[in-house]
Amino acid sequence: MTLLSDGATRLVDRFELGTWQATLALITSTDVDELFRRVRHAEADDLEGRCWPRGKVHDDATVLHWVLT
Q1: Residue 44's pLDDT is what?
Q2: In a 3-state reduction of DSSP, which class is residue 4?
Q3: Bridge partners (DSSP) listed for residue 4
Q4: Please, what is the average pLDDT of the chain?
Q5: What are the two backbone dihedrals, phi and then psi, of residue 41, each rounded to the nearest 5 degrees?
Q6: From the CB of residue 58, how many other CB atoms can be counted at a distance below 10 Å?
Q7: What is the pTM of this model?
Q8: Which of 3, 22, 50, 63 is buried most deeply by CB count within 10 Å?
């Protein structure tokens, strides 16, 4: 089970820089910090929100990934 805050979903739903499948693969196959790095990089590339309009430059980014056995 994977839960993401809206700050973590920005890569897909706001910035359109990935897919849900690729994001889930990233979370499950590597350190989740890579997702955060990608979100922060996109935010830094558009500090004024011209390319990707949004209410604030940075949003909290939280991921909970739980593998059920």
Answers
A1: 94
A2: strand
A3: 63
A4: 91
A5: -65, -45
A6: 13
A7: 0.84
A8: 63
DSSP per position, 6-67: HHHHHHHHTS--S-HHHHHHHHHHS-THHHHHHHHHHHHHTTT-SSS--SSS-----EEE--
- Residue 57 tokens, joined: 């430059």
Please list, residue by residue across 3-28, b when 16 or more beta carbons sit within 10 angstroms of its beta carbon and e when fewer do: ebeebbbbbbebbeebeeeebbebbe
For 67, the token pair is 């593998």
- Check if the beta carbon of residue 39 is closer than 8 Å to that of residue 7: yes
Residue with tokens 């979903």: 9
Which residue, among 28, 23, 27, 29, has the nearest Cα to 11 in the 3D structure? 23
